[in-house]
Write a structure and sequence with these properties.
The complex is a heterodimer. By secondary structure, chain A is of the alpha/beta class. Chain A is built from 15 helices and 14 strands. In chain B, β15 and β16 form a beta hairpin.
Amino acid sequence: MEKDFPRSCDIFCTVVDNYGDVGVCWRLARQLANEHGLAVRLWVDDLHSFGRMLPELDVALSQQTCRGVEIRLWKADMPEVAPAELVIGAFACRLPESYIREMAARERKPVWLNLEYLSAEDWVETHHKLPSPHPQLPLTKYFFFPGFTDRTGGLLIECGLLAQRDAFRADAAMQARYWQGLNVPPQRQVGELRVSLFSYENASIAPLLQAWADGVSPLRCLLPEGCALPQVAAFFGHAGGRAGDVWQCDSLTVHVLPFVEQPEYDRLLWACDVNFVRGEDSCVRAQWAAKPFIWQIYAQQDGVHLEKLEALRARYVEGLPEDAALAVRDLWLAWNGGTDVAAAWARFNERHKLLAEHGLAWGKRLSGNDLALNLLDFSRQVA
Amino acid sequence: MKTAQELRAGNVISVGGEPMVILKAEYSRSGRNGSVVKMKMKGLLSGSGKETVYAADDKFEQIILDRKECTYSYYSDPMYVFMDEEYNQYEVEAENLGDAVNYLMDGMEDKCEVTFYEGKAISVELPNTIVREVEYTEPAVRGDTSGKVMKPAKLVGSGFELPVTAFIEIGDKIEIDTRTNEFKRRAN
């Protein structure tokens, strides 16, 4: 096994919708480049979506370097390039045929991985690291599955992330500056709860907001711009909203935040008491934030996503008393197409302290399984 | 060409120029409506087996080999013997049967497709749906009528166990999807 292998990496990403795919790829690219010293090229087919999480990205350029990563616009007529030593196709995206042929023609073949979607289901363990020999060419791709157990590829976690989180939480002045930067009062009212809300369109938004408005304690909701904004605006009787808007109804105050970069989003999750997250990347970040969280999973045909939701819930609640485990289940289900989100929220929030303690232990348990490290170890094994 | 999700045990495909017989194909739903197929296959030239995984829409050249309709006849350690309509007998190694071995039993009348490569029987394909009798299963737990709670059931003949819905009882005949080893419904 060569210790300095691989020295270069191409990551291919197609933006399907929203920001999850490119968000994961950008996070992995930075980690491989900045923590492990690889020369990383990130090929993305939609720079406009990418630009929302990387403000300095110039969408007019087909090639540029940002934060140690070479970013390339992946167009149909891809230029001829020498493949990197490690090639990662994210989320089963189809690599260009010319690039695949070039990989196969090399005397020393690149290590080719398909980085799959995250799932907590048991079958992932039996599929992780399996080869996928090309039907025609002398070339093998390997499937690499992120996951929540030691028999999977683990999760993306930057070096020192949890220490940064703990330092932020221990520093009241830093937190105050953070809130001031968002134009949110640093001082909380008595009994105030702060909740981040990042979700897809969701029929449970209006009843949840109503429950918060009707609550006896003040609740401040931090809402990054995105799919949920029109529904929240409609709840307050507005046709739309934008970053900086503040809306109030009885106990509920909503602050609309700009769409922020990944490190800023982490701070939001660390600063809030409860986090509503969606898709893959923010779900993982909520687990590093270690606050009680509610996951809205990406909806799939035939309701198959509900099995995936349950698979993570079942792992996450291990060790919790039954009533708390049920409270998590009820709110997650209500938030994913179920009913009576108000009652489910009340039961969930009653157990906030217990769930916060549990979240810390859960995040610590997961943090030893570093996806980038595992991915590099595996690439050395099969090189 | 066939996609990975269309392939099933018994099919022969070309991978890197070698004919490979598929012993088992297992379909799983990944994220964002993507799917993967885990396939256990064996090289017909090298004889070596491997476990692989493919995206469900990966395409393969299927190799059409001679096939004959047969019925299972008997087990002659270590080979399973099948017989065609002209009473010719063909021996198949247990390893090449894949999951079909779970449903073989003396006296079964299901028609099987035996595939031949260079005159040798190399795989057996069962009908997509077969009916088997339950030899043993625990009684249903009272109160659950949702049909979603599953319990293990052991089949007559092979002793194979699979999950069935709670209302299935000992002696019931059930339909099974042989591609997925899943219980479908109680047979009438």
